[in-house]
Design a protein that fits this description.
2 strands; 10 helices; mainly alpha; Calcium-transporting ATPase, transmembrane domain; about 60% helix; about 0% strand; two-stranded parallel sheet
């Protein structure tokens, strides 16, 4: 005698919350309170947005950890001047990074979020792609921050590996006793400005930022203005500058710092374009 065929698919019972009977509602797995099936689609879309937004925040936070850790490693290994202090790291983690991270968690669902197949049950929240991307963004941040750090020593001619005299224009001259302090200040400010570009880059993993709309998340714009106000306060308010080992940063150096977010965002944009091009070719 042949056995009955096994049930290969688990059916999900759906009942109307208004028009449905009490028996149907009790037996159903999902009860639609407004009797509109589009509510299920919106729920799925919001669920996907929550998952991706958590990944965006984690990528953003992990990235800034790289330029926070590397200075201590290089100082220990190469015996070069320390580029970042512990109070400044706390100012990044508990101050300037906090606002954009909260803003990224409030991102709306991406336009093509419902065009992707369901995630595998085995897919992890923190996977290899997220870690590699965060490492890449953090490495770019570190290189940018050290470019400003080395620039200060280069202009001062005091970096251990650069023993020479340099005729520096008067508007870039730094008193010898302030070179280390200015270098540390520009490194800290560099982490913050680079994180501005990182925040925009982390709004999406594969799509370009323009597809989301630059003003679609006003909370992100406010948070970036807030973190810039914080770093300016830490540098130019004397009591805070003294507490965080900063000195008055010459305004000329901000023209260099403002390049950081543009470079970081552009490199990640290029990565997205190459990735999407490869994906379209495979399809």
């Amino acid at each position: 005698m042949n056995d009955a065929p096994a049930l290969r698919r688990a059916d999900v019972g759906i009942a109307m919350g208004v028009a449905g009977t009490d028996v149907a509602r009790e037996a159903a797995d999902i009860v639609i309170t407004n009797d509109d099936f589009t509510g299920i689609l919106h729920a799925i879309q919001e669920g996907r947005a929550v998952f991706t937004n958590i990944r965006k925040v984690m990528t953003y936070i992990f990235s800034s950890n790289i330029p926070e850790i590397v200075p201590f490693l290089l100082t220990a290994i190469l015996n070069i001047p320390l580029a970042l202090t512990v109070p400044q790291i706390l100012a990044i983690d508990l101050g300037t990074d906090l606002l954009p991270a909260l803003a990224l968690s409030a991102e709306k669902p991406e336009p093509d979020s419902m065009q992707h197949p369901p995630r595998r049950k085995s897919q992890r929240l923190i996977d290899q792609f997220l870690l590699v991307r965060a490492l890449g963004l953090g490495t770019i941040e570190t290189l940018l921050c050290y470019s400003g750090f080395i620039l200060v020593y280069f202009l001062g001619g005091q970096f251990p590996a650069l023993q020479f005299s340099l005729d520096v224009p008067w508007f870039l001259r730094i008193p010898p006793e302030q070179i280390q302090a200015v270098a540390v200040t520009i490194f800290h400010a560099g982490v913050v400005t680079a994180q501005v570009g990182n925040a925009f880059a982390c709004r999406t993993e594969t799509n370009r930022g323009r597809s989301l709309g630059w003003s679609s998340n006003p909370l992100l714009l406010y948070s970036i203005a807030g973190e810039l106000a914080i770093i300016l306060g830490l540098i130019y308010i004397p009591s805070l500058a003294q507490a965080f080992e900063h000195v008055w940063l010459p305004l000329q150096f901000w023209s260099w710092l403002l390049i950081y977010p543009v470079v970081l965002y552009s490199l990640d944009w290029l990565r997205k374009r190459i990735t999407m091009g490869s994906k379209l070719k495979r399809e």
